Amino acid sequence: MRIYHEKVAYENPLVPLKIFYHRKIDDVWNDWHCHKQVEMLYILRGGLDVYVEKQQYLLRDGDVILIGSNQLHRDHSHGVEYIVFQFDCNQYYDPTTMPYFKLFMDSSVSLNELNYLFRESVEAKQAVIASILDIFKEMQDKSYGYEMAVSLHIRQLLLTMLRYDSRKILSIKNQLDMARLKPVLDYIEKNTNAKITIKQASQMANISYSHFVTYFKKVIGMSFIDYVNYHRIKMAERILLTEDVSVEEAGVRIGMENRGHFYRIFRKFNDCSPKEFRKKMMEWGK
Fold it and tell me: Where does residue 9 fall: left (phi above 0), alpha (psi -120 to 50 degrees), or beta otherwise?
């Protein structure tokens, strides 16, 4: 079986999503593939059979489907027009939404299980479709402030699924765990450029050093090191876009004095170097 990892390219690096109209006239089978982005398909006209891991979904006019991050999927078209919407949840969370957004990226959850919503709740289905269409229009029109509007519509879309999820597939089962890690998360948020070791973090949470690494990843959904680096790179992005400083200075400002290390971590989260990121954003703003 041939499988490929799709790399989704964003039109605007500051808006980590891709949404587009697609039309297939012929009877076509696509290969199995996956990508880190969550994907939603909204069928305008025609038929599309979608296979997500071991599940089959026969979609027709007006249907919508959710495919989780890194879930293997393929489709078989019968002459179809539809909207494809792909977005990276990790790029949209903040401290207030992190516990909820994590649920959409949790590898232990088969996100396609949420598709029962669209069969059982007309209200949920209509609300989700409305959000997809709003996002599509914003990305087409690009009116002033569309980036903010898109972010709001994505949050509304996810909120709809959270609130209509009667089977509690997306329920937070670790409220006490989140509360226990809150001092660590708050410290990272307020001291992104400061050096914080796993030992220090484990002491803040009152968890043994040997248990902390596994515990943090289980609760947050990413390793402690990745979480800290993610926040640092986000700060570096803001510095590069808003201040007239060198790339090296931006690295120093976020606590990454080693230039090679800074470049490597930046590329991990952005698929480009800091210089390439700044250049792309300057070109986009012209």
Answer: beta
| DSSP per-residue letters across 202-222 | HHHTT--HHHHHHHHHHHHSS
- Please give the Cα distance from 87 to 64 (Å, whole number): 16
Classify 225 as helix, strand or coil: helix
Question: Which tokens in the block code for residue 34?
Answer: 């996956």
Q: Which residues 6+ apart lie within 8 Å of 61 measured at CB? A: 43, 44, 45, 46
By CB atoms closer than 10 A (0-12, 13-18, 19+), residue 176 is exposed
Q: Could you read off the pLDDT tens digit of each residue along the chain, which spans 286 residues?
A: 567 788 888 888 778 899 999 998 888 888 899 998 999 999 999 999 999 988 999 999 999 999 998 899 999 998 899 999 999 887 776 666 766 766 777 666 788 999 999 999 999 999 999 999 999 999 999 999 998 999 999 999 999 999 999 998 887 666 778 788 889 988 998 888 888 899 999 999 999 998 999 999 888 878 899 989 988 998 998 899 889 999 999 999 999 999 999 999 999 888 889 998 888 777 765 5
Q: Indicate the DSSP class of residue 169.
A: T
Q: How far is CA 204 from CA 187, 188, 198, 212, 224, in A?
A: 9, 11, 10, 11, 13
